[in-house]
Amino acid sequence: MIEKIVNKINTTNPSFIFAGSRGVGKKHIALEVAKSVLCKKIPPCNNCDECRRIDKEIHPNVVIIKPEGDAKDIKIENIRELVKSLTFSAAEGYKRFVIIDEAHRMNESSFNALLKTLEEPPKDTIFILLTANLHSMLPTIISRCEVIKFPPISNEKMVQILNVSPSHMLIPYSMGSISTFNFYVANEPQISSLISFLQKPSSSYVDISDLAGDIMEVVSSDSKAQELEYMEYIISLILFDLTNKYKTASENDQNSSNILNCIEEIKSISKKIYLNTSPSIVFENMLLEVAKLGS
What is the pTM assigned to this prediction? Predict the structure, then answer.
């Protein structure tokens, strides 16, 4: 994968989106790509000043943008400052990398501020946008980038890495992500309740409200950024389960349109977590949509 990306960088001036679940190595690969271009050795040595500075995220030719502090999103001021800095030539080398971590957390204004730069990237500047929620990004941004999807780690490999039983109930729901599995294990009672609901949805508003309350206990944090990350784990689980149901229904020639509509509605509702909508309302609305499938 790295060699193919580097070849494209050396022949064109592409922008990339690395899309995949948390914990599957998107940022690691982005940094390894930067090393492969900026290190004077092939493959990169990991010992020179270039490689060490990239590892420490202090290399002048590797700019990393991400939500600051407890901010939920990447603000337009951050993108404007980035765009302004790109008017200057790359330092100490002929290529510069802009890695935008949690790129789906750009708000609409931030996306629009970045759009023109992606349309006409500065010479020798490579954009790599990292996201665990490709569906939350503007289509206009996606259309200007080459999307590289990162597959999940296989269940067998997950079992080896985590040293857990192959029959552990949370392995199949972890979507090939180590960080996702660890989050689920840390909150196993609530996650198990959610999985039970997804397998057999209840139409009782009391049950739905109680489960949404349990979810809020899991995602609540003093850090807004961490709280958002926890909510994304929960949303990923709901969408993962629904997607599997859709595939099974399609393969068995069953009516899958209701499931597909539910998936699209969940995606639409999920975008509200990046706004000022109450998270408890967001999750209640999601669970109510899932409950419709059981009615």
Answer: 0.75
